User: Fold these one by one.
Assistant:
Number 1:
Amino acid sequence: MTNVFAIVNAKGGVAKTTSTMNIGYALNKLGKKVLLVDLDAQANLTLTVGIRTDESLNISDALTDGCKITDIIHKVNGVDVINSGRTLIEREHTISNSITGAVKLKSLLKKIKDKYDYILIDCPPSLGIYTVSALVACDSVYIPMVAEPYAWDGLSRLLETISIIKEEEINPNIKLGGLFFTNNSKNAQTILGKTIISEAKEQLGEKVLKTTIRTNVSLNESIAVKQNIYDYAPESNGAKDYMKLAKEIINS
Ligand SMILES: Nc1ncnc2c1ncn2[C@@H]1O[C@H](COP(=O)(O)OP(=O)(O)OP(=O)(O)O)[C@@H](O)[C@H]1O
Ligand SMILES: [Mg+2]
């Protein structure tokens, strides 16, 4: 059965895109069929896997019935990727106001789901229509978090949104898959960092995943050269940490 994961945090720069891409490629290394969906108008995932953002079609066309979902699936080193682009911003109002609005992504994915073991959706840093669409379409939510000041900003609203989506039966089976700390080497040593990590464990218990992603320069560099970490630096701590995380996720 296919598992659909939304990678969400309303806070920017917490490694949502880095995690979506590298958990996806780690799952692919483990023999799984993977689709990555870029749902962020910044199109960082699209660019990082090497798809141009001036491609004529992107996810916003499928969401507005301008193309079929199969028209925007790109094959990139063994993983399928649905690209994004700036038109997601221009069409946000139209999509929010259409009858199918937040359920359209779910119905699009339903048409192609069976081909994959895992579908990972990279969300924008907000709780707008696109993130809500991902929460409606997913089975589990994974939250990357950085143990820095303001780390909790927006998180309680996200957790509240997940409970509303569940309780109002918009997506009754939605689960919090887990929260994991990213870019963590420096933060884990500071008093503030330690406090944030222990608060997270107090509030979310076993939903705080055991694997943390260490700060790793190869992860940074791999993005600059538009490669996943397994092609760029397979022996790096970044590659090891994301593999450990992918295994923890599939075994949980
Ligand atoms: N473990 C890590 N070690 C070093 N750098 C990292 C690590 N994880 C992420 N980064 C860097 O942090 C920056 C932000 O990462 P990323 O773009 O994945 O965050 P994001 O949450 O998707 O951001 P946005 O909210 O803008 O979409 C990038 O430059 C990335 O290379
Ligand atoms: Mg991003």
Number 2:
Amino acid sequence: MKKKIKIGIIGVGSISNVHIQSYQKIDSVEIAAFCDINEKQLKHMMDKYHVKNGYTSVEEMLDQEELDAVSVCTWNSGHAECSIAALNHGVNVLCEKPMAMNAEEALRMKQAAEKNGKLLMVGLVRRFGDDIQILRDLNQNKFFGDIYYVKSKYLRRSGSPGGWFSDKKRSGGGPLIDLGVHILDMMNYLLDCEEPVSVYGYTFDQIGDQVQIKKNAGYVSSTASSNIYDVEDFAGAVIRFSNNKIAVLETSYNLFIEHDSEGLELYGSEGGAKIDDGITLTNNVCDYMANNRLLIDSKFDFHKAFLKEIQHYINCITDKTECNANADDGIRNMKILDAVYQSAKVGHEVII
Ligand SMILES: NC(=O)c1ccc[n+]([C@@H]2O[C@H](COP(=O)([O-])OP(=O)(O)OC[C@H]3O[C@@H](n4cnc5c(N)ncnc54)[C@H](O)[C@@H]3O)[C@@H](O)[C@H]2O)c1
């Protein structure tokens, strides 16, 4: 019988559930150990998933267990440290988004992967969504001609996940680094990962945390809140790429919008597209302006996309499939995010 791939999970909070449940669906995989600095959370997750081996120290887990691969699902401030530790133990890494707190940390992670000859995949899960896969397919089939402008939004009216997410020391920033990285990466992916050359960015912290607001629960961190909210409420950016293509983004935790909204629009020389709760294509048909609604369910499905991401990670390890969310993709995102925060601070465009 073929040996199973032994997996360790580092940071067993909210999102780790989706990693664990995806690994459980793959026959060639065995979840061998959990690690979390919070002993209570560690015990809770070991009981929930019947995992016998638990550690509160990453180094100890890596020394004791013969792991093939890990998922790093800690706070953002733990991503570089835990990923580098695993890579230095000869273990493959799937690190959650954002890749790190900044581009400098992300580069050190890539160096550790290269030095040890191991895979470092970044959890850019939106690449695995049906909506983006369909637009990539249309692009490869030249529907859009040359795509030159993409804009995307990920706006919450009142939606910080709490816990460490609003504590800059552990998160690196607010909605921009948390939600913005998703839409930034989607746009990078659709623009074929061109190199960014300059960024004009802005952030606002006019509202602050709204813990008193009565609302339906959204995504929440499993970490207890610390009353620290020192991140931005709202951020936006205009990003120019080497071939003059432009990406524009807007993202918020707190903003007085009518309702939460997500979406993406792209424009090319031959046609365009809009993602809302489906996909609309725009072009000219026999010199008539036409809008076409695709008759396929393309709405982003969180669990389906995660399963595809985790299956891809395992395929990269076992079959040497080329990784489609690699360290360079993560670093490109981090360089842009660093530049948005820098531009917001200095009040003008920043050259990357
Ligand atoms: N891809 C997505 O759509 C998506 C969605 C949500 C969260 N995330 C990312 O997943 C990561 C975790 O988010 P979450 O919502 O699960 O947070 P969480 O607070 O629920 O869980 C994080 C866990 O990591 C543990 N931890 C922190 N530092 C550690 C360390 N050095 N070693 C071991 N354990 C450590 C904490 O004790 C906590 O239990 C973040 O980077 C976040 O951006 C991604």
